[in-house]
Amino acid sequence: MEKEIVNRVAESDLVEINLEDHYPKGERMLIDMKENLFQGLILKEKDFREFVKNENWSRYKDKFVAITCSADAIVPTWAYMLIAASLQPFAKKFVFGDLKALETILFIESLSKFNPEIFRDKKVMIKGCGNLPVPESAYVELTRLLMPVVKSIMYGEACSAVPVYKLK
Questions:
Q1: 3-state secondary structure string, 78-119?
Q2: The pTM is what?
């Protein structure tokens, strides 16, 4: 007599959350101020204002934009402000920082609309591997949101879950 194979994962009360479902859709772009530095060291106001005046800002239409300076140089605050003012009519969102900072901010905003109450008293599996670049900060934020309401949090896949939190 053969023993029936039972999918215990499918029958469990485990609920999966995939952070990729909260991935803000849209192209990401980077503006690196180092491209505007004279000899890679200083920003010349006249040249920079000319760049701002002549740049085709419409190419940032509906894009997520990170504004940074990857060079070890002192860039005056007003230069970043000029870039921001120029992006305002076009970009979907812009932030100061690199692309990783942009992803963090986009996910924090997306998760601010997340309702953890629908997971009250549930066992939650936060899906691990995926195809989209989900920053670690998103996993931390989701954990923070879920802990007050769930019975447990696990990370990964049902076949190789890592326990993260269990209600005492």
A1: HHHHHHHHHHCCCCCEEEECCHHHHHHHHHHHHHCCCCHHHH
A2: 0.83
| CA distances for 30 relative to 6, 16, 67, 115, angstroms | 50, 33, 6, 31
Residue 73 class from Cβ within 10 Å (0-12 exposed, 13-18 middle, 19+ buried)? Answer: middle
Q: Which helix (H) or strand (E) holds 152?
A: strand 152-156
* pLDDT per residue as tens digits for the range 78-129: 999 999 999 999 999 999 999 999 999 999 999 999 999 999 999 999 998 8
For residue 74, CA distances in Å to 47, 50, 79, 92, 101 come to 16, 19, 11, 28, 20
* Residues 53, 43: Cα–Cα separation, whole Å: 15
State pLDDT tens for residues 3-21. 765 444 444 689 999 999 9
Helix (H) or strand (E) holding 143: helix 136-146
Token pair listed for 115: 């309702």
DSSP track, 25-68: PS-EEEEEGGGGEETTTEE-HHHHHHHHHHS-GGGGTT-EEEEE
Q: What is the DSSP letter of 72?
A: S
